[in-house]
Specification:
The chain is an all-alpha fold and 378 residues long. It has one domain. It is built from 17 helices and no strands. Helix 4 packs antiparallel against helix 5, helix 6 packs antiparallel against helix 13 and helix 8 runs parallel beside helix 12. It is globular, with a radius of gyration of 21 Å. It starts with a helix and ends with a helix. The mean pLDDT is 90.
């Protein structure tokens, strides 16, 4: 088939998928609720108004000020057009993340088609929520996977810059700083730091020095003040949420959440230091990506879409593990990917959420990554 015809067919299929999915979404939702938050903040940014307002309730703006500036082009469009534009981009980013994860995965065992569809099945729950809410986790995932791809080519400066850029979409991209420091070295850290400083200072042109400082203080206040009310929400899965659900909110749960965070990050550093493989970056970054919703106090279950590359790696190496570890992996997949209201029904679903099933599943997935590295399988 001629290349132009192949391209036309792919564009046609993509367009039909977008139209179908967006039409289905419109039957259930009036708007992309999470997309509207930074869109509103972008309008406030251009008007030099305060971004962080308690009166916005659950949908307070919680991103860095610079992200509001990045969203400014969407304010030039009518709201409905901006939403469908973002939805289309999100569908494209879903496909790109799956495709680039295949490209970056070293020493692949299974066929691309098998890996693509199984990984899509395991991440379907997260991708559906990402699309339905109009979220921004896929941008972070692509930026951090991009850091892996350029690091594989030896471009460590670009890797650091991409991680720094991701921080301004979602601050939890900071979890990759240990990877930059340990694996890629000083040049990547310098690039990361330069991008971070530039991003923090960009709003000065709109708000002035004192205004920008006030924005950053208000950002910190907003993030910290809205954490506690969300801990007991069914769809939260952070270590803080997990321990709070098990023991009740309080000092003990907070201390155990902090200890869990320290141990999990230390395990990732130990994994980088202890075992050597020819291509270490993919699995190491994948491990830290699955930690993101566990470390972030407001980690929602759909943030696991960021860990899609690790899910693909685990699927690819499934047959290389012993039966007990295969069982661990399957339980991890079941808890994270199939704890869906429509599958298990309301009573069991709510019970699983109170048990912290998604959190436990993510921990099991992370342990499987460590096991792969200990066996030099990835």
């Amino acid at each position: 088939m001629p290349a132009r015809r192949v391209l036309f067919v792919r564009l046609l299929v993509f367009t039909l998928i977008v139209i179908g999915l967006y039409s289905l979404l419109r039957f259930k939702r009036d708007e992309l609720v999470d997309f509207v938050v930074p869109l509103r903040a972008a309008g406030r940014f251009l008007a030099h108004e305060p971004l962080y307002r308690p009166e916005d309730g659950h949908y307070q703006y919680k991103y860095f000020p610079t992200f509001a500036l990045a969203m400014a082009p969407f304010t030039w469009l009518p709201k409905e057009i901006a939403e469908i534009t973002w939805f289309t981009l999100t569908v494209a980013m879903s496909w790109a993340l799956l495709s680039l994860s295949l490209v970056a995965l070293p020493n692949r065992r299974l066929s691309p088609r098998t890996l693509f569809w199984i990984t899509l099945l395991l991440n379907g729950k997260f991708l559906v929520k990402e699309l339905a809410f109009g979220q921004f986790n896929l941008i972070v995932a692509l930026l951090l996977l991009g850091a892996v791809l350029v690091a594989q080519q030896g471009a460590v400066i670009w890797a650091g810059a991409l991680v720094g850029t991701a921080v301004f979409v979602k601050p939890y991209a900071l979890v990759l700083v240990p990877w930059l420091a340990w694996r890629l070295g000083v040049r990547s850290l310098v690039a990361f730091g330069v991008v971070l400083v530039i991003g923090l200072l960009l709003p000065v042109a709109f708000y002035g020095w004192q205004g920008n400082l006030t924005l950053l203080q208000e950002w910190y206040r907003t993030v910290t003040s809205t954490t506690a009310p969300n801990l007991m929400m069914p769809d939260t899965m952070s270590f803080a949420s997990m321990w709070a659900k098990w023991l009740g909110p309080g000092p003990t749960a907070s201390s155990l959440a902090l200890a869990s965070s320290v141990v999990s990050v230390a395990a990732g550093i130990f994994m980088m230091a202890r075992w050597r493989v020819d291509e270490p970056y993919y699995l190491e970054v994948g491990y830290f990506l699955v930690l993101i919703p566990l470390l972030s106090p407001q980690g929602w279950d759909y943030v696991l879409v960021i860990a899609l590359p690790l899910y693909m790696c685990l699927v690819d190496r499934f047959r290389d593990l012993s039966p007990p570890w295969q069982l661990v992996m399957l339980v991890g997949f079941l808890c994270t990917s199939f704890s869906v209201f429509d599958i298990v029904r309301r009573t069991l679903y709510m019970q699983m959420m109170q048990w912290g099933a998604v959190s436990v599943g993510a921990v099991l997935v992370a342990l499987c990554a460590i096991r792969l590295r200990s066996r030099s399988l990835a």
